Amino acid sequence: MPTIICEIFIDAPIDLCFDLSRDVTIHTKTTGQTKEKAVEGKTNGLLNKGDCVTWEATHFGIRQKLTAKIIEMEKPYTFKDVMVSGAFHSFTHTHHFKVQGTGTLVRDEFVYRSPLGILGKLADVLFLKRYMTSFLKQRSHELKRIAESQRIQI
């Protein structure tokens, strides 16, 4: 199964980074390129263990839905969500947070399995892994921008 790991240093406290990462409203602000919005389940506030959220977004020009559930959470160090339904065969997204110097090292680990067997594996090689890596990095940079601007206001 393909694994994508993205790390970014955010010059903000771990609690702020953790909470922003699981905030439904902030999630929509950090995924503007796909016009992502929560349409079912937990549609605002902070996600907690056991919460489900259905996201609607446009990927590859196609409007689609994906439902994820938070299955693990250790505040403020990690939380894990898994796909319940959606375009992938499956995925697990683990979010890690570690105090580092004056801020927080945020590490996303996204492990997925594409649908459609051999065609899905071909899609991984040709474009899907690159697309998902770019998507996760862009979201991380937006999260960094938001967290560091809020730190200045504190």
Helix content: 25-40%
Helix count, per DSSP? Answer: 3
Label the CATH architecture: 2-Layer Sandwich
Class by alpha and beta content: alpha+beta
Kindly estimate the percentage of residues that lie in beta strands according to DSSP: 35-45%
Radius of gyration based on Cα positions: 15 Å
Mean pLDDT: 94
Spans where pLDDT lies below 50 across 5 or more residues: none
Strand order of the largest sheet: 1-7-6-5-4-3-2
Intertermini distance: 41 Å
**What order do the SSEs take from the amino end to the carboxyl end, as H and E?**
EHHEEEEEEH
User: Could you tell me the number of beta strands?
Assistant: 7
- Give a quick account of the main beta sheet: strands, pairing sense, barrel closure: 7 strands, antiparallel
Q: Kindly report the CATH topology.
A: Alpha-D-Glucose-1,6-Bisphosphate, Chain A, domain 4
InterPro entries: START-like_dom_sf
Protein name: SRPBCC family protein
Describe the protein's topology.
Elements lengths: L2 E8 L3 H8 L2 H7 L6 E5 L10 E8 L2 E13 L3 E8 L4 E11 L2 E11 L3 H37 L1
Antiparallel strand pairs: 1-7, 2-3, 3-4, 4-5, 5-6, 6-7
3D structure, described in words:
The chain is α+β, with helices and mostly antiparallel strands and 154 residues long. The protein has a single domain (3-153), classed as 2-Layer Sandwich (Alpha-D-Glucose-1,6-Bisphosphate, Chain A, domain 4), CATH 3.30.530.20. The chain is 34% helix and 42% strand. The protein is built from three helices and seven strands. The protein has a seven-stranded antiparallel beta sheet, covered by helices on one side. Strand 4 (62-74) and strand 5 (78-85) form a beta hairpin. It is globular and about 45 Å long. It starts with a strand and ends with a helix. The mean pLDDT is 94. InterPro entries: START-like_dom_sf. It comes from Psychrobacillus faecigallinarum. This is SRPBCC family protein.
